[in-house]
Design goal:
By secondary structure, the protein is an alpha+beta fold. It contains four helices and eleven strands, in the order ββαββαβββββαββα. Strands 1, 2, 3, 4, 5, 6, 7, 8, 9, 10 and 11 form an eleven-stranded mixed β-sheet that branches. The longest helix has 12 residues. It is globular, with a radius of gyration of 18 Å. 38% of the residues are buried. The N terminus is likely disordered. This is RluA family pseudouridine synthase.
Length: 236
């Protein structure tokens, strides 16, 4: 997949200080390296920091959370080990408020509510299965959702995950509401999107700065892709 030249206009950089680098990740880019060998966001960030600050060696970039490769939106990277350890603890203890936007092919019924499942990850197939009853191998997973309205021939749903599990939003919407995310053929949507992304966007993260303790809110603009055009009229 062709991807934009990240950092070309620094439009993907939402915030930077001595401890944090906050990125609006384009869909199609890994956050952290994997077996594919494709260049991840963390490597690109290290190159950016090394060039910007003329560092003789490799810049420190710590990954404290991930969003799936076909998902776009807010990713926080740590520039110091102190920030990384504190952010890891905050994500582990669910102390960071996360807001996602998803497009679905039909409206959820009911239009708002809470979903609770026990998720089991199949690492070989890279797919997660959701169980409505407690499962011995499953991790309890919870999210809140709300229909924001029709967006063209799709429906815009706001999702606030309480926990952070692999593929959580994707599998919970598909299993719990029978509303797979547009383009997400892995979890039941009928066809992929032209750019092979899925219509899931990490819209906002709100947290206490790990060092200064200031309350911070990071908002990522929607991707410049046709399937998000109708949603822009709703959320801007």
């Amino acid at each position: 997949m062709n991807r934009p030249n990240l950092w070309s206009e620094q439009k993907e950089i939402l915030f930077e200080d001595n401890h944090l680098l906050v990125i609006n990740k384009p869909a199609g880019i890994l956050v952290q390296g994997d077996a594919t060998g494709d260049e991840p966001l963390s490597k690109k960030a290290a190159e950016y920091l090394r060039f910007k600050y003329k560092k003789p060696g490799e810049a420190f970039v710590g990954v404290c959370h991930r969003i799936d490769r076909p998902v776009s939106g807010v990713v926080i990277l740590a520039k110091t080990s102190k920030a990384l350890s504190r952010l890891n603890e905050m994500f582990r203890d669910d102390k960071i408020q996360k807001t996602y936007l998803a497009l679905t092919g039909k409206p959820p019924v009911p239009e708002s509510g809470t979903l609770v499942h026990w998720l089991v990850k199949d690492t070989v197939r890279n797919v997660t299965k959701a169980y409505s009853e407690k499962h011995s191998q499953g991790l309890r997973s919870e999210l809140k959702y709300e229909l924001l309205g029709p967006a063209g021939n799709r429906y815009l749903v706001q999702v606030n995950p309480v926990t952070g599990r692999p593929h959580q939003i994707r599998v919970q919407l598909a299993t719990g509401l029978n509303t797979p995310i547009v383009g997400d053929v892995k979890y039941g949507f009928i066809a992929p999107l032209p750019d092979v992304s899925i219509a899931l966007h990490a819209r906002q993260l709100q947290l206490q700065h790990p060092v200064t303790k200031e309350l911070m809110t990071f908002v990522a603009p929607l991707p410049d892709a046709p399937h998000w055009d109708a949603a822009r009229a709703i959320v801007g």
